[in-house]
Design a protein that fits this description.
The protein is of the alpha/beta class. Helices cover 37% and strands 18% of the residues.
Amino acid sequence: MNPHRRTRIKICCMSSMEEIQTAINACADAVGFVCATPTSIRTIDKQKVAQITRVVPPPIDTFVLTSETEALKIAENVKLTGASTVQILSHISLEDSKLLSELLPNTKRVQVVHVESEESFDLIEKYSAYVHSFLLDSGKPNLKTPEFGGTGRTHDWTISAEFVRRSPIPVFLAGGLNSENVLKAIKLVRPYGVDLCSGARTNNRLDIQKLEAFINQVQKADADLLNEAFKLD
């Protein structure tokens, strides 16, 4: 990560316009909606997402999350919701990734990588030509009931840090982040952005105090990195 650049903040698992407004007021750069993901408890109806994305002010990015594996179905979900960005939860085929880039040339595409081992590095070369960024998350997508994210668990950040170092495109970090660990995570991994879901929720509702505490720690991490860079200069 360039130490002179601010870490982007994405708040995921949005369920209402009220939560969107809370996130925007707290200075979030992006908001996310879980759609077409049957295993998630935070799935929101596509039509409701479409109603919300129409009124989210720019430059706030709207992410639609989908576990679909076929490019045509993914593209259909994006068009139904009107989201500016699609977050692809499954490790789709190279052919579908390429086709999706052709079907959605004006939509930002984010490929999720579930960090389970150093084999994650192999996905950099596979996908980087067809997506705009990666998102590193905790999860086990190959289970009988797949875990695509929102687990509340962290993963091995040393692997994530090396992934960021190798990747030619921006990388978001997700997975168990909260106000108590995000400063350490940013300093170690140096991601382009961080993604928050369960770490800002109480009883599955967005908690403004947790959200503000998280954002304060992100800003502190950025300030610390900037100060360190000036000392090196």
